[in-house]
Amino acid sequence: MNSSxxxxxxxxxxxxxxxxxxxxxxxxxxVGELADDELLELLADTTEARKALELIVAGASAEVSxxxxxxxxYKGLAQRKGLRTGTALVQQIxxxxxxxxxRAVDAGNELAPAVVEPVIDVESAVATQAPxxxxxxxxxxxxxxxxxxxxxxxxAIRAGLGEPPVERYPELAPDFLPRAWxxxxxxxxxxxxxxxxxxxxSQARIVRDRLDPVGxxxxxxxxxxxxxxxxxxxxxxxxxxxxxxxxxxxxxVDALLQASLRPRRGPRFVGADAVAKTRAxxxxxxxxxxxxxxxxxxxMRTGANADPQQAFGDRQPGVRIVVEASAVAxxxxxxxxxxxxxxxxxxxxxxxxxxxxxxxxxxxGVIAVMWGPDxxxxxxxxxxxxxxxxxxxxxxxxxxxxxxxxxxxxxxQCEYHHIDxxxxxxxxxxxxxGIALCRNCHLxxxxxxxxxxxxxxxxxxxxxxxxxxxxDPATGEIGAPVELRSKSPRRFEAA
Length: 495
Fold this sequence. Notes:
By secondary structure, this protein is α+β, with helices and mostly antiparallel strands. Helix content is 43%, strand content 11%. The chain has a three-stranded antiparallel beta sheet with strand order 5-8-9. The chain has a three-stranded antiparallel beta sheet with strand order 12-13-14, with no helix packed on it. Helix 6 packs antiparallel against helix 7 and helix 6 runs parallel beside helix 8.
């Protein structure tokens, strides 16, 4: 592997395991007896040990796979042990599922790729070597080898980003996209510490789409061509259905279901009368799945003649697409406008190709959000207590979702918090003092006395937001503030 002996997985495993033993003691103390900080430190140590162990398993699995290759026939390791493939042999020994073994083999191959023998071109008598590893990929592999990310996180970034499609853009310098990939890897590695693997994979796809607008169209058309709906009846007479959505229709259905589930998205009740309040709120005994089913059936039955107020109240379901002005060319000339970049669905940030955006511009409204040279939307001062609709759109485009570090709630579930409280601090209703927070995180901030502050760089005028924890109730100590990072696709550069 590419790590030094001092930082090898075996050494890291030994060190982490020793810390685990020291925390639990020789008597293997029950984790329930540990204090809060000790419990979290134990979890961190065991995670470090697991990361190192995963690397060892990955390297061994990849080597078993190489020694069991089809080219070796019956001389292969798996065949000699009575199994058909190296994957089956690893499964038998480890008890892992096929998906886990495949991930381990892929990770092992990334860290220790098979040696490629030089090929000599007889006509030119020049030996050709295997291509060097690009810097962005070396950085990503190094993060896996050092234990900075797990195998699952590595695969999420690797699969989400794919390879820089240099051949699609011959007009660009050959190193432009690889360098952009490298900058994206750095951002994703930083966010891997707080994002779930599923969100990390989604963000990797988003940055890929921002750098590859041609690929967005190709992938959209591929998924559109694969759209399908089929039904069947099982042996008990129950009707089933399976839908494979295209990107635009899937976003519309998501918005529709978000609207139907919105009353259930808030936090549960606490306090002495929590049981009574919860029972009152849960008078509707349907599960979320049943509620979604009833919503879809109601929409299908009533169709275009339905009264939307009956189903969704005062906020109608819809899909809002964020398009930067730099993605539109020829907008000032009649008949010459063309969308050359990509747009992003406000909820989640998934990319849509220019053709879809042009079609929506024909039949949908457009709301322009003006940004100053420092990259901040315009303000309205203190005349209004609540943020205006246009300001909320601007904050949504800037934040991209709930800004709480560990929260992945989409912008449709968010409220808008004054970091300078409007009543207590006489704060202004300006975009740069507003933060998107989902209802759960918003109430947590107020009830537990967290607070958010903003600093502005004197040179670039760029704003940075910080989340300050409340004093620890046991010790009174105040932890270090955490930088809040935007979830918006705009944080990634665009082609």
